[in-house]
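ok so i was messing around last nite and threw this chain in just to see what happens. nothing serious, just curious
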Amino acid sequence: MANMAVDAAIPDSANPVILGAGISGICTALVLQAVGFEPCIVSKYIPMQQDSVPQFPAVPTDYAMASAYPHNLRVENLPGLSSASQQVFKHLEQVQNSGVSRYRIFEVYEQEPTEPPLWQERINFQRFDGKPELLRKSMNVPVRREAGQIWGWSFDSFFADMPLYLSFLWKEFKANGGQVIEMELNAPEQIESLCSKRPIINCLGIGAKTLFADSAPLNIVRGKQVLIPNTPMLKADGELPFAYNYTPSPEIFSRADGNSEYVHFFARTGDWLLGQTREPGQLNKKNEWVGEAVLGEYVDLNGIQIPKAILTLNEELLCDLFGVTFADRELIAREGYRYYRDPDGEGVRLCAEQFGSGTVIHNYGHGGSGITMSWGCALETARLFVEIADSNNVNRKITGGENVSGEASTLKHVLKSQFQTFQANKTEKALAALS
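result:
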């Protein structure tokens, strides 16, 4: 009976059905719409329906920090996926009300760091190191007052202001005829019934492990942040909005293993976001996080324990740069869980597999890189789906000429153009491997 109820809720025209309404689900849906399909999203949780303090931290899409610059992730074809994502964000930066803009980000360390991943792909990348008092003469770099030496780099990064960005994406999806069904799927038999009629795309995140019997190791990384509403935009040297990741020495702020933890800051439209923690762990049977909490003192904000260093260190850095403090400001604590699939092995699950009599395409396990890599992974997911659809002679809607200029103004046309490029690159690499 449960299978019949699920089948009845899904329109016959829906092809494919996408499980999960997080950033992976909505981006995949938009790419598939751009190439002529009619995806339907099915999810228990729908974005933009949570309070400012989420009731279920395992669904953190609404309140992600959402910087989007090339960095490390365990996934096949990382450079290609990263580059594709950056191209889409570059377009969105030019779209009014998309919620995507460009920031100047500083990554600062009080101990000499390792080489940053994909630094050659970052925009306007600039290194620095030396005594803080000397560096401050040439740049407004955030630095702790007692730091004797710092290392780091600055660069431009795309940033998605999540309340605005999610609203924009969902408006696009619905304007293209997209449908969303609020429903929980909790049994493999339901999936088998659905994918017997059309391929299923799995973007469930944490929920995928049980539903699809994924035996790969997982790491649930807890993150804590503080939202400060009704605040001004802060800009680097009066130009781009300002952000940073700051890693002090371990005695100032450290993880459970004794290594340094970092704090970060992003100014958004109307509020500031302070973070963070990256605490590895698991969820128990009650969906409660159990793991390795950061060390040091904590303060209680609206019932959530926040490391004191997130407040004190960020306030010191911002006070010295901009003369602002947190006194008499509202502080709202939040926490969320990032699902890192098999972080030391296979990593992100981005593939197709036989499931019963049908096919499931997986796109999950991105951890804290879900937004950064969202468009590249969506394009690869769509490519896998199109291969299956074309082999089964599935009809598509006519969405315009086969060759769409990269200068086209709409997101739909840009995604179609990116898909064609992405597909061609994959074909070229496959042929080269055979030669």
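not much to say yet. Residues 400-409 have pLDDT under 50 and may be disordered.
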